[in-house]
Amino acid sequence: MTSNWARLAALALSVASVAASDLRVKVLPSECGTQIASVSLRLQLDEFGEVKYLRAGVVLPKITKADNQTRPESFGLWDFGTQEDEIIYNYTAYDKALNDPTYWVVKAEERRGWVTETVLFGSNTRGMDFSEPQVVPFVVVSPAVNYPPAQRESNGWSGFGLDRRLSRTALAYRYHAIVTFSDGRKEELPVGYTNFRPRFMPPPPSPPPFTWDARFEERDRTDDNPPAPHEIKTV
After folding, report:
1. Distance (Å, whole) CA 7 – CA 177
2. From the centroid of its chain, how far is CA 39?
3. pTM here?
4. Domains of the chain
5. With 90 as the cut, is the pLDDT of residue 43 above it?
6. Greater pLDDT, 116 or 223
7. Which of 142, 167, 177, 227 could disulfide-link to 231, CB 3.0 to 4.6 Å?
């Protein structure tokens, strides 16, 4: 018996929301289609982190002047007025060393942040034939918590130069379908991934602008107390 495929249609997760999705399961060969005891769906957050730095006493190869100073024709498309006497350098040894484990110490760790799982096909599988695609809807309820947004690929390296300590991280919200056959055998199938859109809370409403009203009147004066030259009459 072989669990052939399981497909997922899922929306991106977002804060304080309900994402409506569905799972489609099909089993081949066809004679095994009625031997499914249950199908569960798991959503998990996988985290990966890596730190990379040069080994003690190791120096990266120097970038040297190329023996052949003739610029390849392919460079013509990218030649925006370069000088004829420009020096062409050879990066081959330097580039190879960037991925050479004899130069670097690499420490990597992968862990599972959290897991939630539910049975989509259970007691209701009696009499169902999974040799034909079976579809079951489900929803994912996200609490009002800004989980970190997921990325399918790594966010790249960060550091202060290729000759120093570098690090990279990756996050992934992954779905897995767990198919249990009537003989107790289980198969786990990766069925997709989703992203998480954080919600940026709007700033609190600003207080109303300060308003005030005043009345200006000219002061009473006498001929014995004339206004100073710099005073301005207000109307």
Report:
1. 9
2. 28
3. 0.61
4. 2-58+103-197 (2.60.40.640)
5. yes
6. 116
7. 227
